[in-house]
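Lay summary

Proteins are chains of building blocks that fold into shapes. Our project writes down both the chain and a compact code for its shape. Here are two examples, one after the other.
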Amino acid sequence: MQKASQFIRSKVQPLFLYWIGAVTFLFFFVSGCDQLYSEKQDVVLARAGNSYLYRSELRENITVFSSKTDSIIQSENYINNWARKQLLFDQAIINLDIETQKELDELVNSYRSDLWSRSYKEFIVKSNIDTVISKAEVEAFYQENQNNFRLNEIMVNLRYIALPSENIDLLEIKNKLIRFQEEDVRFLDSLTFQFNSYELKDSLWLAKRELIRTLPIINEDNFEDYLKKSQFFLVEDAFEVYLLFVNDYILRNEVAPLVSVENTIRKIVFNKRKLDFIKQFDKEILQDAIQTKKFQLYR
């Protein structure tokens, strides 16, 4: 064991010193090579087995740092990783049996083919599929699949404002939040810099867990106290005043409101459109190849 350690040190230490010296040289060489060589020339910087590392590859794969030390370290790491990969690959070629190498080659070829095919299909999809999902499509899907949108927990539709308790506009803000006409919304929007937190959209639906997480004044014990339609609540704690107006709520197992699942539906409709397009594309590419004699079956 001691002999093995001595052998490793005898091999690794000179190699390490060699790389440090080589990388130091490479840093200055790479940074100044434009003055010595034209862009059309490329230079071999390292060899590992039968593989060669060229200046262009090193330049393409390392970031230029302002610090020479950082650039040297990065160059050293890249070269060492490159050499390690090449040497391992060479050892694999020598030591893996032919059958295993054949299986690996088949996997590589299959992966390459799949990768190129998927990338090409994505390109075709982006070029040909309309990404706009109309409101009518969303509503139609919602109506046809309502059983898929039944709630696992209560959802509440509300608007709220949390603000410091000493706010001098508290009464007016309260009245505007309750009435909530167009001019009221504009007024409240103009005061949002005074609010600690707020949500002023009538389209906001929060599930029970989200509501408890969003508003500290609501918890498991008092949650049902707020299940009152068209009801205003004013709750004050030691630091803030919370103004809530509950528009509506939907119980568990009822169908979720369209606005709360609209984005999900758009994704579903688009994915279905995408899958249908790819299915048709796969069919047509064979038909076209048969017609143009690029694909033939021999029986």
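And here is the second example, written the same way.
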Amino acid sequence: MSEREELMALRQQCTRSIQGHGVVTAASMLATIPSDTTMDNYGQGGVVTDLEAEICRVLDKPAAAFLPSGVMAQQAVLRVHADARNRRTVVFHPMCHLEQHEGQGYQRLHGLIGRPAGQRDRLITMDDLTAIAEPPAVLLLELPQRDIGGQQPAWDDLAAQAGWARERGAAAHLDGARLWESAAGYGRSPAEIAALFDTVYVSFYKGIGALPGCCVAGPEDVVEQVREWRRRMGGTLYGLWPSAASALTLLAERLPRFDGYLDHARATAVALSATPGITVIPDPPQVPMMHLLLRVAADDYGKAVRRLAEDEGLWVSPFCVPTADPAVQRLELSVGDATLEFTPAEIAEIFAGLMGR
């Protein structure tokens, strides 16, 4: 058994967590699928159609398609936009998911060309975009920008950036894997954000905490082509209903809670910032997630996480990102139902203990 497998087994033995919606089990996830769910057939009918209709309503878009994977969804919609414009260039932030976590699938499978704009440790600016001379097919914006702590641009800047794409004849596409968190941060509805973009991708297993799956929403002609690419890429499974039913259940349950998650994230950040050895990025959090710089060696932190899980049944993620300083680790903290069970002071005390303070 690998070290990661050992840690995941240890996680399943825990009964509490400070992160997201907590430790999930097969039983808890199956419970999100109503017993009277109507099944689909190869993505048509039943709860899949119901979920797509709900996403159209929530995002105020004319059409939506359910896909089993966000990687598949975004590659498909970017390919459709590129083919429609006979262009191959996709402009994105250098730390976007497409570039960092998908093995350059957009390039190797679809012949698209990535054009990073801006710097790795800050958001894209209009100056970064106006410096680009080549005609892009798509501008992809990720909200919030997860790998730099969940940051997002000011609303007027976001609107200007989407407008830049349209002025260049490009599509504006939203990587909204965490759109629900983004909407809380802006104090706007998901539909208001989606209105700035031609197409939107939303995930259901991240902030919503459902089984894996996602939707792409946008114009009917684009979405119909995404459905065709879903089949070509092997995503039109015989039955997509378990994930779609889980998503529809938890979307209704958790979407109203994100303002509360944000309030708790900001209160927690105050307590964490006052704890020696912890830096919060960004401070204050802009959405219900943040990154923590912890002044502790990776091995010491990992051992402390294991002890906490074994002794107290409390799970804190051991998966830190190393920094240029070996004595400092970077950790993502997402706020959800499980986090609400702990006061900000309790969360700060837990992290202080993990750092040996």
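What can we say about the second shape? The chain is about 45% helix and 15% strand.
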